[in-house]
Design a protein that fits this description.
Oligomer: single chain
Radius of gyration: 16 Å
Number of helices: 10
Strand content: under 5%
Shape: globular
Structural class: mainly alpha
Helix content: over 70%
Length: 182
């Protein structure tokens, strides 16, 4: 990243989390290293990310990653497109889908449910002030519960924030992401 912030002493829980990352995926994502200058910010980021992206909910892990990619594509976030595009490739087992999602999710053959979800996430990104009850009803008609709608909006909003931070500090993705599931 472009900022010269020194890594703070990792708390025991964050040291264990970094070790778990290395064990599971073979490296510590650069986004975590970027936040590691401040344990409070790192722990808050990790807790919120894990809740949004990994906790049980009505959205699959793949669907949440698809939201991350659609939002990041709108924001042209190199870090998140690379990292979460790789996650879509891995979770879907389809490298072409991952690339389509990065470039333009509208060209991918998606289920109507997924198309509605991504259209809403992009609307949150582009023009959240124009969201109306009809937008939420469209998601309900596609099979989403009100809790699912909350989760779609929360994931989209989180990645809008993350995209802006990554761009503002020139956060670069780990090279390992480029090779995953190709």
């Amino acid at each position: 990243m472009a900022l010269g912030l020194a890594r703070a002493q990792l708390s025991p829980s964050m040291a264990a989390y970094f070790d778990k990352c290395v064990e599971k995926i073979g490296f510590v994502p650069n986004v975590l290293s970027a936040y590691a200058h401040d344990m409070a910010k790192l722990e808050a980021f990790v807790a919120f990310y894990n809740d949004l992206m990994l906790a049980p909910c009505g959205l699959s892990k793949l669907e949440r990653e698809m939201i991350a990619v659609a939002v990041s594509s709108e924001n042209r976030c190199f870090y998140c497109l690379t990292a979460h595009g790789a996650a879509v490739r891995v979770l879907s087992g389809d490298p072409v889908l991952g690339e389509m999602m990065v470039m333009n999710y509208r060209v991918a053959e998606l289920a109507p449910r997924q198309r509605a979800m991504l259209d809403f996430a992009v609307k949150v990104t582009r023009s959240s002030h124009t969201i109306e009850e009809a937008d939420r009803q469209g998601l309900r008609d596609a099979g989403f519960s009100d809790r699912d709608i909350w989760d779609i909006a929360a994931v989209a909003s989180f990645f809008n924030m993350s995209n802006r931070m990554a761009s503002a500090i020139d956060m670069r993705p780990n090279a390992e992401y480029h090779r995953q599931a190709r």
